[in-house]
Specification:
Number of strands: 7
Keywords: Oxidoreductase
GO molecular function: 2-dehydro-3-deoxy-D-gluconate 5-dehydrogenase activity
Radius of gyration: 19 Å
Family: Belongs to the short-chain dehydrogenases/reductases (SDR) family.
Strand content: 5-15%
Structural class: alpha/beta
Shape: globular
Number of helices: 9
Enzyme class: oxidoreductase
Low-confidence stretches: none
Mean pLDDT: 93
Largest sheet: 7 strands, parallel
Distance between the termini: 58 Å
EC number: 1.1.1.127
CATH superfamily: NAD(P)-binding Rossmann-like Domain
Order of helices and strands: EHEHEHEHEHEHHHEH
Number of domains: 1
C-alpha cells in the first residue's frame, strides 16, 4: 500500500555502494534523512566509511557497514550476502561502483580498459542481479537504482571506455526493468552531471572547479546532496509508477553549449 507520506522511506533498508564519500555518501545521507536504515559499502580499508556511518546514526537511523571489493563477481556476491546477514533484508539498492581512467583512445592499455569495464559496468550487473534474486525470493518488490553519468550521452575526449560503460549501464537499466516487471521491482538510473566530489577536487584544481561551475547553466557544479535527493525520490513510493527511466540530474550541463551568444555575454552596467 502506498504511504501517506510517499517520499518517506521509514524503516526501509537501503544498500549503498561507494558510500564513504562523494555521490555514494550523498545518497546515503539523504536516504537516512527520509527515514531509511542504511547498509553502507566501500572498498576494504576505506578511511571514510566509518564517518558516514556515524553521521547516519546521528540522524537516528540504524546503520551497518560492509567492506567488500565489488569490482569482482565474488565481491558483489559477498556484499549482498553480508548485507542480508546483518540487516535481514534489502529493500533498496543504490549501485554506485565505478573506476575511471583518463587517457587517449590510441594509448589506452588493455589492462586499464578491462578494469574500467569490470568496475563500472560488470560490477553493476552482478550487484543488481544478486539484489534482484534476493527480492524475488522474498516475493518481489524493491528498488534498484544505478548511478550512471551524462558522459553516457556526451562524447568527451579521453573518456571512451568509461563513457561506454556508463552507456551500457543505461541500457542495462531498461533491459532488466522489462524483465522484472512481473516482480514489481522498479529499476531506474540517475545520470549525474559535473558533481563537486573529492575525486573531482583531485582531478581539477579548486580554481578550475570554481570558475567552471560559475559558467554552467545553474551557476555551480552539482553536489552529492543533489543526487541524493533525486535518488530518494526514485526509490520512494512517490515514484512507484516509474521504471526503466534514466534521469539526468545535471543542472543543464548537457545543454551548456546550446545557449545563445546573448545569454553567454556579460551584462553591461546601466
Amino acid at each position: 500500500m502506498p504511504s501517506d507520506e510517499p517520499m518517506r522511506l521509514n524503516s526501509k533498508r537501503a544498500l549503498v555502494t561507494g558510500a564513504g564519500k562523494g555521490i555514494g555518501r550523498g545518497c546515503a545521507l539523504e536516504l537516512a534523512r527520509a527515514g531509511a536504515d542504511l547498509i553502507l559499502n566501500d572498498r576494504p580499508g576505506s578511511q571514510e566509511l566509518a564517518q558516514t556511518a556515524d553521521d547516519i546514526r546521528a540522524l537516528g537511523r540504524q546503520c551497518w557497514t560492509v567492506e567488500a571489493d565489488v569490482f569482482s563477481p565474488d565481491g558483489c556476491a559477498a556484499l549482498i550476502q553480508s548485507a542480508i546477514q546483518q540487516a535481514g533484508e534489502i529493500d533498496i539498492l543504490i549501485s554506485n561502483p565505478a573506476y575511471g581512467k583518463r587517457d587517449r583512445f590510441l594509448d589506452f592499455s588493455t589492462s586499464e580498459f578491462d578494469k574500467v569495464i569490470d568496475a563500472t559496468f560488470k560490477s553493476g550487473f552482478h550487484i543488481a542481479q544478486a539484489m534482484a534474486r534476493h527480492r524475488v525470493e522474498l516475493g518481489g518488490g524493491g528498488k534498484i537504482l544505478f548511478i550512471t553519468s551524462v558522459v553516457a550521452e556526451m562524447p568527451f575526449e579521453e573518456c571512451s571506455p568509461y563513457s561506454a560503460a556508463k552507456a551500457a549501464l543505461n541500457q542495462l537499466t531498461q533491459c532488466i526493468a522489462v524483465e522484472l516487471f512481473s516482480h514489481r521491482i522498479n529499476v531506474n538510473a540517475i545520470e549525474p552531471g559535473w558533481i563537486d566530489t573529492p575525486n573531482e577536487r583531485v582531478t581539477f584544481s579548486d580554481d578550475v572547479i570554481d570558475s567552471s561551475g560559475a559558467s554552467l547553466p545553474w551557476g555551480r557544479l552539482g553536489t552529492p546532496a543533489d543526487i541524493g535527493r533525486a535518488a530518494t525520490f526514485l526509490v520512494s513510493d512517490a515514484a512507484d509508477y516509474i521504471t526503466g527511466t534514466v534521469l539526468p540530474v545535471d543542472g543543464g550541463f548537457r545543454f551548456k553549449d546550446m545557449r545563445s551568444v546573448s545569454q553567454l555575454a556579460p551584462k553591461k552596467a546601466t
